[in-house]
Amino acid sequence: MHPRKRIEIVVEAVRAEAVTDLLDRLGATGWTVLPVLAGRGRQGIRRAGDPGGVDDNVVVLCIASAEIADRVMAAQAELLGARPAIVSITDCVVLRADHF
Amino acid sequence: MHPRKRIEIVVEAVRAEAVTDLLDRLGATGWTVLPVLAGRGRQGIRRAGDPGGVDDNVVVLCIASAEIADRVMAAQAELLGARPAIVSITDCVVLRADHF
Amino acid sequence: MHPRKRIEIVVEAVRAEAVTDLLDRLGATGWTVLPVLAGRGRQGIRRAGDPGGVDDNVVVLCIASAEIADRVMAAQAELLGARPAIVSITDCVVLRADHF
Fold first, then answer.
1. Do A30 and C37 touch (CB under 8 A)?
2. Which residues lie across from C32 on neighbouring strands?
3. Which domain of life does this protein belong to (chains A, B, C) (predicted)?
4. What is the reported pLDDT for B89?
5. In which band, very low, low, confident or very high, does the pLDDT at A11 lie, cut at 50, 70 and 90?
6. Residue in chain A lying closest to B35 (CA)
7. pLDDT tens for residues C11-64?
8. Run of H or E including A86
9. Which of C33, C70, C88, C93 should one mutate to test binding to chain A, selecting the residue with the greatest count of A CBs within 10 A?
């Protein structure tokens, strides 16, 4: 088992591509985008399906090396430009080291 | 980077609001609700889209301070009143301390 | 609070049952399947809703004891036979020890 970082970013759906583009540029080997039904944050409650979908959030999940995770953190200004609601990072282990 | 707790609660969709209301009252600054396609637990297999949707589960995700997480744990009786399938808590770090 | 492992597996939707069957056989008391909107991995970008749905991924989430998690790791060959994109494991604590 190999130690990695699990990066989880909650962001508006319309800004998700800015986040995944950033992950790509920083060397992440992959990412996964999950739908969100509803959420509450600093801007109040959001629910999926609002007219225009402009309020929809998604979760961007990325398993990466500590080095990539450090780059994501160092790119804080650019990342926060996508106005994510949450950026959290958790230690994990992965089955195949060659994939990350 | 700032240490926080990632609280993840799998609960019936019809009871999710009891969980998010509890998180609100305990001082959580936000939460995110994710859809679930299917699950197996103590009550057998559940699939989204069952007639009436009564069997649908969701995942409630909340990033909070250790203090808030302790309150959630201390409110165990009330939390379990919503009959969550799973309540798990993971250590994480967040990018912006002022948001949690 | 009781220490457990949070196993998260990103896998093609059509192969998810092979993963959950394996978790069942290895003694996991439950699992949850979440939908995925899009992802990038070794095989390029995938988006939900492709014709036939053959490209759809899902996330299989399983909270289990360290013993069960070890069995999952030991069953690596069988697990990887389902060609998961990602298998990651995180330490967590759970509210009710009797459920896992």
1. no
2. B39, C61
3. Bacteria
4. 97
5. very high
6. A37
7. 999 999 999 999 999 999 999 999 999 999 877 887 877 665 556 899 999 999
8. strand A86-94
9. C88
pTM here is 0.92
Q: How many angstroms separate the CA atoms of B20 and C78, rounded?
A: 38
Chain A interface with B: residues with Cβ < 8 Å: 8, 10, 34-42, 57, 59, 73, 76, 79-80, 84-91
Tell me the C-alpha distance between C21 and C81, whole Å. Answer: 13
Burial class of residue B67 in the structure, from the number of CB atoms within 10 Å of its CB (0-12 exposed, 13-18 middle, 19+ buried): exposed
Token pair of C58 as six digits: 């899902």
pLDDT at A52: 55
Q: Do C40 and A58 touch (CB under 8 A)?
A: no
Copy the structure tokens of residue C5. Answer: 């492992």
Percent of chain C surpassing pLDDT 90? 66
Structure tokens at A24: 């790509």
Q: Residue A96 has what pLDDT?
A: 79
**Residue B42 Cα, gap to closest chain A Cα (Å):** 25
Which residues of chain A have a CB within 8 Å of the CB of C41? Answer: 29-30
Nearest chain A alpha carbon to C44: A30
Q: What is the dihedral of CA C66, C70, C71, C75, to 10 degrees?
A: 150
